[in-house]
Structures are given as C-alpha cells and as structure tokens.
Write the structure tokens for this entry.
Amino acid sequence: MDISFLQEAIRKRADQGLFRSFAGQGKGIDFCSNDYLGLSQLQPHTLTHFYGLGSGASRLISGNHVLAEETEAWVAEQFGAESALWYGSGYLANLGLFSCLAGRGDTYLYDEFIHASIREGLRLSHAHAYSFRHNDVEALRQKASVVRGRVFVVLESVYSMDGDTPPLEAIVHLCRELGWYLIVDEAHGLGVFGSRGCGHTFGQAWNDVLLARVLTFGKAAGFHGAMVLGPAVLKEYLTQFSRPLIYTTASGQSDFAMLRFKLEKLLMAEAERSSLLQNIEHFIRSSAQTPLALMPSVSPIQSVLCNGNEAAVKLAELLCAEGFEVRPVRSPTVPKGTERIRIILHSFNTKEQVGDLVSVLSRNEAFMKIS
Ligand SMILES: Cc1ncc(COP(=O)(O)O)c(C=O)c1O
C-alpha cells in the first residue's frame, strides 16, 4: 500500500510552518486553557448514585434517559429559554444546528471571524452564506441587497480568537428592522459575562429576533458537551432534522449528572468571576505601560500581536521555557498580519503571575508588533 501521499501532505504543512501537535497541560502556569474559572478539576466529593455510563443507542432508538430530559429542562429554566437540547460537543451543536436550520433559498450572514464549527455547519446546509466585516453593523446592513429567503445572522458573543464582543444591541435592532433571525454562540461568554455568568444574551428582551443560543460546556463550565437553547419548536425541529443528533449514540447518564454539578458551580462562582475580571483589568493596565500591541478586548482572551508565524511560535516557546503556558496562533487561522500569542486569563492566576507574564513579554519586543 502506497501511503506516501500522507507523509507528503504532512511535510508540506511543516514546510509552511503550520505543523500541528497535541499538547497536554504542561508544567508552566496556565495561560492557555479555556478553563476560565478553574472548574475543570472540580468533581463531586462523593457520588451518591451509580449512573450507567453507556446509553446503548441514539436518543431516538433507546438511548434517551429521564436524566437527559431533566437536565435539559433545568438548563432551559436557568438560562431563561423555552427549551435546551444537548449535543456531545460545541462543534457538533453548531454542525447540527446550522446544517439544517436554513434551507435551500435561505441565507446565512455570518461574521468573518466566526468559529470553524459554524462554518462547517453552513457548508453542509443548502443555504446561501455570506460573511460580513467583523463587528461591522453597516457592512451587515449592506448585505440586505444580496440576501434571499429567510435570513439568519450568526455571531459569537465573545470571539474565540480576538476576545471582543459584537455590538449586539445594534445588530438586534437591525434584525428587528429587516425581519432577520439572530443566532449567538455563547461559547466564550458563558461563565464569564452576564448575570450569574449566563452570557451576554441572557435576560435581554430579544426573544422576537433571537432564535437560538449555543452554550458550550468545555470552557468555563470545565466539562464538555453543549446545548442549543431556543423555543420548544426549535428543539422539536432539530430532533427531526439535525443529523449529528439523530445518527449518534446518546451520552450516558453520568454526563448529565456531572454537567448539572458543574453548571451549579458555574452559576454560583461570583468570587471566581470577580477575580477573573480583576486579572483581565490588571493584564490590560500593565500592558498599557509597555510597547505590547494588544487586540482590543475586555474578555479573558487577550492577543499579543507578533511579527508573523515564525515569531509567534518562537515567542511561545520562549515563554513556555520561562514557565508560562501560552500558545501561538498562526495565519491562516487568523488573518495574515495578526499572528499572535493568545493569552487566556483565569480566576486562579495570581496578580503576580499576570505581572510576571507582562514583564517577560515586554522583554521580548523583537518578536512582537509594537504599539
Ligand atoms: C465559538 C466556539 N464555538 C464552538 C466551539 C466548539 O466547542 P467544543 O470545544 O465544545 O466542540 C468553540 C471551541 O473552540 C468555540 O470557540
């Protein structure tokens, strides 16, 4: 069997400086995971029940369980939605939602920096899909000249690479004016923003345009999985048409028990949220006194711009050697010219660690764009 084509593709990728490899937690201080509140290591002291681990089938055959339904109903109630529907990951939730929501002749309008999982969902759908300039309401409005059928605007409440938030209120107004539907992925808003960490979209009077919210539980909730929140009829629709839900084995009961445990902690984690916000402020304030060029963001996701892919990789290696776990983000994952070190701040980072990180960064100006 000739499998040299595999090696050839890998070599090409490496030659482009884009080789990828798995990475564990590392020994340094965590400035790279999405475990914003430090909940990933938290587990119940005692498990009072034995929860069967396997479900045995998809939810439509025999894999459904009362615990899945109860947990979904509880999440819907906590987040002020009519219904919630579980998927095994955020990637699957986005694939499952966007591949079937808009049909042939309809249109998706998505922010140019939207997450890959949403892009994949759009590609699988039969709808038209157009991107608009990042966070630009006027650019979105101008797309009115090309849309057909029903129109679905797709945003993230906190963008995963830049850490910034779209002008949600203005986009809601635009959707209202033009009769468009809005869908917001709250992957990086959950746990951090909004009342009890319920996200930027929580508690807003936007139900006339906000068709769905996507919550992912692998980040601030410190677990895995995701839910699509929305009207009850949306859940019913997805049950009929969403292939990543229909053609996959259901999650086991222990997942739902653990999710509830983690989300209860997340909703109550006011002390963690407050120390996270203090760390964000401290990082931004300390960086402002240095030549570091940061992307504008008030979220835990902070990007330090570098002079290209190679410089970003070198700088990340150097920081790791100094005891800081950070990761480079290269183009084409981010646009050319915005290659960066992506720093993720957490509630459990100390003020001193944040200050030390900024000092080490500013000692390595040669790799970075200077503000
Ligand atoms: C905005 C956004 N949506 C969805 C996902 C996918 O979520 P998961 O990691 O649960 O598959 C991510 C993960 O990086 C993300 O950043």
Observations:
- Residues 21-39+270-367 form a domain with the Aspartate Aminotransferase, domain 1 fold (CATH 3.90.1150.10).
- The chain has a mean pLDDT of 96.
